[in-house]
Amino acid sequence: MDLSSMRVKELAEICRKFGLRTSGRKAELVERIKSNATYQADVAAMAKMGISNGHSGSHSGTKRGSSNTYTSSNKKPRNEKAEEAAIDAAFARFQDPEAEEASITDDGILALCDALEIDAQDPVMLALSCAMESATMGVYTRSEFHRGMHKLDCQSIEDLRAKLPVLRHQMRDRAEFSTIYSFTFGFSKDPTQKSLALELAVGLWDLLLPGHFPWRRHWLQYVRENSRSVVSKDLWLQVLDFGHQINPDLSNYDENGAWPVLLDDFAAHMLDLITKKGLQAVQQEEDSMSSEDDKADEAENMIVDE
């Protein structure tokens, strides 16, 4: 990930994730992130695995579904039977004994998250599901589990835990993330439906868009207040394109650019806000909305823990 190629808003979002100050010039934000221990640990882990930390460019230059961050540069001679047995043993730890098809289901996935030492709502689980090419949310079949473990060059849960920095890197890289984001639509929707339920889409956007959509909180609020319909695949995909292509001040937004109606209406809404309040005030409003939601999440977690 090339921090210097990212926009200030994206850098500020990364700072927020790491618990760092989000104000300052671009160079200051880059230096702040590079000095963060968590960021340094991720970079060190990827370097140890032979993975470049460079920016891989736009989604248009990357074949959908491909991933150059899965592969380690130092491969040992393979013992395929031993590998399959080890992966089977890892799968068996979490397998649902009552499922008709050999699979890991809800309780097993929660146990897997515990073993990986991550929260079940951690976005990295979507990157893992994408690696497995899982067909349905809440289910990992044996073949899907094997596929993901092979792609990540893992044989045990300990191996998989060690690869989490690789998956987190994918979530921050635009090209890799675009593949994961596109996958998430089909993975999350009801298999019998063509579209995604609105509330589920809003929850996923909240989880996925930090660092990829400058006006995420304003967008979520606007969708809740102005949309009563489901989310089509076209809208889902173009939301990310909008976040990646349109400047925070919307100076390069073209009302004739063939965006979905909801995005056109949102752009008009944001332009009106920026005209009335000024860009800086609206940005502060966005940051304030994010902070309030974070506090609400913390309060909810405290109640659950009690």
UniProtKB/TrEMBL annotation:
What InterPro entries does the record point to? DCN-prot, DCN1-like_PONY, PONY_dom, SAP_dom, SAP_dom_sf
Output compositional bias ranges, type Low complexity: 51-60
Per UniProt, residues of the SAP domain are: 3-37
- UniProt-annotated stretches for the region Disordered: 51-82, 283-306
Q: What GO molecular function annotations does the UniProt record carry, in alphabetical order?
A: cullin family protein binding; ubiquitin conjugating enzyme binding; ubiquitin-like protein binding
Q: Which Gene3D superfamilies match?
A: Cullin, PONY binding domain (1.10.238.200), EF-hand (1.10.238.10), SAP domain (1.10.720.30)
Q: Residues in domain DCUN1?
A: 82-271
Q: Composition bias, kind Polar residues: at what positions? A: 63-74
Q: Which Pfam families match?
A: Cullin_binding, SAP
Q: Which GO terms of the cellular component aspect does the record hold?
A: ubiquitin ligase complex
- The highest taxon in the source lineage is Eukaryota
Q: Which GO terms describe its biological process?
A: protein neddylation
Positions with biased composition (Acidic residues) = 284-306
Q: What does this protein do?
A: Neddylation of cullins play an essential role in the regulation of SCF-type complexes activity.
Put simply, this protein is called Defective in cullin neddylation protein
* Source organism: Phytophthora infestans (Potato late blight agent)
